[in-house]
Design brief:
By secondary structure, the protein is mostly helical. The protein has one domain. It has 15 helices and no strands.
Length: about 280
């Protein structure tokens, strides 16, 4: 397995975002930038657990991915083997939780909880209506809380708002993904995901509504007391991210299932821009 295949198998960009969200949580709660050693140490558990979870997902989803013609997946294309996915999964879970154990007891409990739920998600939760989607959305919110807890053992109002925004965006993305993957989930996994239960069109509408709600919530930090209050370093990137999310909501609603993949890829860019806004606002 080459380096680029490793990046595809682990969807490593997501893990970098989890690590960055942890760092943002730390900076926000402390009001300053911790030492590099501390940042690297505390960002490692979400990063490693993230790559483990995605490798496990591809390992258990290979038949569904084949049906959904996901030739971009390394196990489907044959560029990676099941042994590769197993090794990465074990490495990420073991070392991610091991590092969290040495950081603090609360850090270890959070890491262990989400590791166990990552396994449970891939085995059963993702096949149930909404429950699996809620779990994945929570993994996008928890790094901010994780960073806040490991740095100061508290959760501020700013952290709570940002985590809520991340959760709503994550839930919207996951609903859109289940709508996109409905054929493979139903045929290969015998799933009862939300679009299988209520239909693809209604699921798309719910996902789009969650994006819109997250857009509205993103303006709360601008108008509230705190580090983001009327800070252009925050609201300019956030406005750009909101525009991308609005477009990603509009396209599937207007064009249907055929627009889902491109729209979901667009939300990944929006997440990156949003994280830049969160980080820039925390630093300024």
């Amino acid at each position: 397995m080459n380096f680029y295949t490793f990046l595809d198998l682990t969807r490593i960009e997501h893990s970098f975002m989890l690590a960055l969200a942890t760092i943002i949580g730390e900076i926000l709660v402390l009001g300053s930038v911790p030492s590099i050693d501390f940042l690297l140490l505390t960002a490692a558990p979400p990063f490693l657990i993230g790559i483990a979870a995605f490798s496990l997902n591809d390992l258990l989803d290979v038949e569904a991915d084949r049906i959904n013609r996901r030739t971009d997946r390394p196990l489907v294309s044959g560029s990676a083997s099941k042994r590769d996915a197993i090794d990465i999964t074990l490495f990420g879970f073991i070392f991610g939780n091991g590092i969290a154990f040495f950081i603090s007891w609360p850090a270890f409990l959070i890491a262990l909880f989400f590791s166990l739920f990552a396994i449970l998600y891939n085995i059963i939760l993702k096949d149930l209506p909404l429950l699996g989607n809620v779990y994945i959305a929570s993994t996008m919110a928890i790094p901010f809380l994780f960073g806040s807890v490991v740095a100061a053992n508290t959760i501020t109002d700013s952290i709570a708002v940002i985590s809520t925004i991340a959760f709503l965006v994550g839930l919207g993305r996951e609903l859109m993904k289940t709508a996109e993957d409905v054929e493979g989930d139903e045929q290969a996994r015998k799933s009862t995901t939300l679009p299988i239960v209520i239909g693809v069109e209604k699921t798309i509408l719910i996902g789009a509504a969650l994006y819109v709600l997250a857009i509205f919530l993103s303006f709360i930090p601008v108008q509230s007391e705190g580090p983001y209050s009327w800070d252009p370093a925050y609201f300019i990137p956030i406005a750009c991210a909101d525009a991308l999310f609005a477009f990603a909501a509009y396209k599937p609603v207007m064009e249907g299932k055929s627009a889902l993949r491109n729209a979901r890829n667009l939300t990944l860019l929006a997440l990156g821009v949003g994280l830049i806004g969160f980080l820039a606002g925390a630093l300024m």
